[in-house]
Amino acid sequence: MFLHGQVGVLDSAHYAYNVEGTQNETPPAGYDSWIDYWTARIGDSCPLHCCNLLCNTFLDTRNRVGAHVRLEGEPDDDWAWIVPLCASCNNANNHQAHFLFKGTELVRVRMSRTRKTNK
């Protein structure tokens, strides 16, 4: 992964997992949602499709979210990545791995308390 401050870009496809218990996490002041925060930090618009290659659902204003994920092999700590996923992939009951495509842009965030990876 290439890091530019708190923004990362995957240099190859990578597995990621939802982080449990993030429904009460709020984006920083001035942002209405995590996807708005992701868009501002990346400096680009949201992708047209879910970043999970196993899904690839078209993203529109009704189903796109900024999901809290951990990349496979990362420690179970109070840090996560925000990545654009569809609402279905971001579901708390989804315990399956997301296969993020090469070039996926992620934004690093610190959560309010330690959470577990949903796998």
Structure description:
The protein has 1 helix and 7 strands. It is mainly beta. Strands 1-2-7-5-4-3-6 form a 7-stranded antiparallel sheet.
Major sheet description: 7 strands, antiparallel
Strand content: 25-35%
Counted beta strands: 7
Poorly predicted parts:
none
Question: What is the helix fraction of residues, given as a range?
Answer: under 10%
Oligomer: single chain
Tell me the number of helical segments per DSSP (H or I, 4 or more residues long).
Answer: 1
Morphology call: globular
Backbone structural class = mainly beta
Radius of gyration: 13 Å
**pLDDT averaged over residues:** 90
Strand order of the largest sheet: 1-2-7-5-4-3-6
Distance, first to last CA: 22 Å
Concise description?
The chain contains one helix and seven strands, in the order βββαββββ.
Main features:
single chain, about 120 residues, mainly beta, seven-stranded antiparallel β-sheet
Write the layout of secondary structure elements.
Layout: E1 2-4, E2 7-9, E3 14-18, H1 34-42, E4 64-71, E5 79-86, E6 98-100, E7 105-110
Antiparallel strand pairs: 1-2, 2-7, 3-4, 3-6, 4-5, 5-7
